[in-house]
Amino acid sequence: MIEVGQVTAVVGVEITIKANENSSLETHFYRGQAFKGVSIREYITVDHGFREVVCKVEGEYLDESHTEGKGPNLQYVRRLKVRPIGYFEDEKFFDGIKFLPKIGDPAKLMSERKVEKIFERTVSDGFKIGSLMKEDLPISLPWQKIFNSHLGIFGNTGSGKSNTLTKLFTVLFENKFDTLADISQFVFLDFNGEYTGEQLVDSGKKTVLRLKTRAAGGDQFHLAESQFWDVETLGILFQATANTQKPFLRRIVDDRKRFSVNVNSLTAYVKSIFRRVLNSEHPSAEALELLKSLSRHLGIGDELAEALNKVGYHRNNQSFYFDSVRGSYFGVGNSTYDDHFGALVDAIEFEAPDGFRELQIRAELKLISDLLYGSVQYEHIQPLMRRIEALMGDFTKVIAIRQGDEEEGPVTVISLRECNQEIKKILPILIAKHYYEEHKRRVSSPPDRTMHLVIDEAHNILSQQSNREAESWKDYRLELFEEIIKEGRKFGAFMTLASQRPADISPTVVSQLHNYFIHRLVNDRDLTLLENTISTLDSISRSQIPSLPQGACVVTGTTFDIPMLLQVDKLPKEQEPDSSDVDLVDLWG
């Protein structure tokens, strides 16, 4: 071993070493082995009895108060500031500060092979995604610990985070796809359509859903009927408020369960509502307008619709009248209803609606019924009705209600690239809830299968700062993902988040991640969040984050003994995510 200095001070965990003259060489060769010279972020060992304490170099300076030699040979003493990170015992590395050197202990360089032992990552298991940037040593990550945890991949646009995310799962599927195909499920929420081609795994081994609201002909996300007719699901889709609108949706769902769901039952319900509205002792103008809307949605004939349009509300008399004919008021003892509507209502027939159309019809029927009984405030429910009507067209393009269970493949990519902003905000929450609840229902204890939810551009749906939604809705949205990331591990459910702005993501979510791949970040808020959240991120690694080259990242977390500066290998062109920079030379000639 090549000795490069001696310990001259030990203050807490900060160690000062007086460096020898030969320590400034870039590389040393000794007995056929290469040794990196002493510089920032390099590793050295300090002999401590029969053990070797491993230290990382954090700084160096010239001690002007101490000199060596005289005349032209006069030199200032070079001193190194190092910090222990672990120790070698019986040629095996143990992390943590258990032993500290003493003054006078010799400091020695480490061979490249010994540096590899610090990271305990050999390439024999085939999970190599890159090399240590400074040492240029190939590193194979422990897949069994990485994918058994929540992952965070952060970095500014163009820093290489999409390549890292793709590389991680591409190497996993190349090595383990046949083993995991029947016991694990991977769901990729793809906001920008970056993984719909040959990325991640061969196209024949994955399911790609290209959801579209801007044009017809897109794929649809399949939702079981039992999951659709669920208060939580409907609350997510239509952003129902907790105190008034969710109870209203619960009454709709309960009524549907209580009574038969066939078309004859619904037809009888519709006929009953027509009679009750037009013959009510306490007529409601709002109920009349809802009845007219209901007739349009049912499509039950022009004649009945025209007759309804002739019905008006006389506010002074507080009663309905027909076609401005004198004395043609509705009510008990009058024949107006029987003369103009009796036969038309009795003849009502319509095809059984499904999915969102049935929801809209049942919501209108329930609101009319509640208004007649005086058990609801119309102005509280009307915003929900407007959202149902406004969003129904988009939802029917991207969601299909199916009967029974449906088998899905191990890898599903859901592209939201061609969806509008409203759907991009709502649908991921429904998708996450669907897969998480289904996984909890199927998994045993201890978990015998896993579910991995991968969210690229996670700040789109995990942001705490949003002026476009109510506080109650934002709280529900965040609580859902916080539950998955806090409780999911015990059920074998894991999340991988990739984002340009970690500071925009809920701090609770970021703090619950286990392992981090941090690419270049320059915003102070992002850096401060990571510094306060990641206990394993040392000051030197943090200081390098703003200046990392493309593809390089700091890898740290519970799986790794010490932070690593990793240069992730670039994927072949056909496997790269569709997020490459524009080549202006090629584009503009």
Automatic annotation (TrEMBL):
Keywords: ATP-binding, Nucleotide-binding. Residues 127-278 form the Helicase HerA central domain. GO terms for molecular function: ATP binding. Gene3D superfamilies: P-loop containing nucleotide triphosphate hydrolases. The keyword Isomerase does not apply. It comes from the Bacteria. InterPro entries: HerA-like, HerA_central, P-loop_NTPase. This is ATP-binding protein. It comes from Halocynthiibacter styelae.
